[in-house]
Amino acid sequence: MKKSVILDVDTGIDDSLAIAYAVHSPELDILGMTTVFGNITVEEATRNTLIVLDQLERPLPVYTGEGKPLSRDYTKPFARHIHGEDGIGNQYREPSARQAEALSAPEFIVQQVMDNPGQVTVIAVGPLTNIARALQLEPRIAEHMEQLIVMGGAVTVPGNVTPYAEANTYSDPDAAALVFGSGLKVTLVGLDVTMRTLLTATHLEQWRSTNSKVANFLADMTDFYMEAYKGFIPDGRGCALHDPLAVGAAIDASFVQTESYHVHVECGDATILGKTTGVHAGDGPRIDVALDVDAERFLAHFLSRIV
Fold it and tell me: What is the band of 281 on the pLDDT scale with cuts at 50, 70, 90?
C-alpha cells in the first residue's frame, strides 16, 4: 500500500534531489508539495519547486507557505553561497508555465490531514514554520497526522550553521520547539545521520553518462553544491544527502535506527540558538531521533531511483 505524503521544501539543491527521489519512488503517493523560506525566499522556493517538477514531468500541485520565522526576525542570511543565487545551482532559465495553488501551505496540510485521519505523512526538509502554523490553525492534526519526518537538528553532533545548531532548526527555533512539543509522531533525521551519507563526483558522472535531460539538470546543480562542500568532505568532492535521507526514511524506516528522546530546542540564548538537546528522562512529548544509518544501503537505493 502506498504511503500518502506531503513534501514540505525550501527548494535548494538537496531539496531538488529529495523531490526527484520521492517522485521516482512508487511507494509514495505525493499529495502535493508545500514551500517555505529557508535556503532561499519562499517565493523562490515555490518557483524552483515548479521548475524541478517540470523537469521531472510531474505536474504535482504546489502550495506556497510561510515566508519568515514564526515569531522573530530572520536568524541568518539565505544560503545562496551553498545553493547558488537562484537556489538550484544557478540552473534557473525560465519560469514554469504553472502557478502555485490558491490555498496556503498550512491550510493544505490541515485539509489533507483532517480529511484523511491517520493516513498522511509529512516530510519536512526546511524550517518547520509551515507545520507550526498548521498546528496553530488546527491543533488536532497532532493526533491525526500519521507521521512527521523532519530533516533537522543535531542532537549528538555539532551544528552546521553554528557550532551548536543545524540550519533548519536555527532558521526557526520557535517553530521547531512548538512542533517537537506538540505530540505529533515525529522522526528527526538530522546531522547525526545525514552527514554519513555521501554522494560523490563519480556518481554525477554516472548520471551524465545516461544522457537524459533530468540527469544532466540534477548533476549540474549538484556540481555547484559539491563545490560549496569543499572543506567539509575530507576525501575529494562530494556532498551529504540531507533531505533525500528524510525521504528514504519515509520509503523504508529501516534505513535509520532511532531512539526516543525529549528534544529541547534552544529559543532564548543567542549563543546556542537552535541547539537541539535530547534527554531520556522526564514527562511530556517524546520524538524518535535517528542516531544510526545504513548509509551504504540507503545510497544504493537513492541512486537506483534518482535519474
Answer: confident
Any catalytic annotation for residue 262? no
Catalytic-role residue among 8, 10, 192, 288 = 10
For 292, list phi and psi in degrees, rounded to 5: -145, 155
Active site residue 242: yes
Question: Phi, psi (5° rounding) for residue 192?
Answer: -55, -30
Task: Tell how many helices (H) and how many strands (E) occur in the chain.
Answer: 13, 11
Q: Which domains does the chain have, with CATH numbers?
A: 3-305 (3.90.245.10)
Give the mean pLDDT of the chain: 96
d(CA 103, CA 130): 13
d(CA 154, CA 89): 25
- pLDDT for 231 beyond 90: no
Annotated active-site residue in 8, 14, 86, 242: 242
Name residue, grid cell 500541485: 61
- Say how far apart CA 278 and CA 258 lie, in whole Å: 12
Q: What is the model's pTM?
A: 0.97
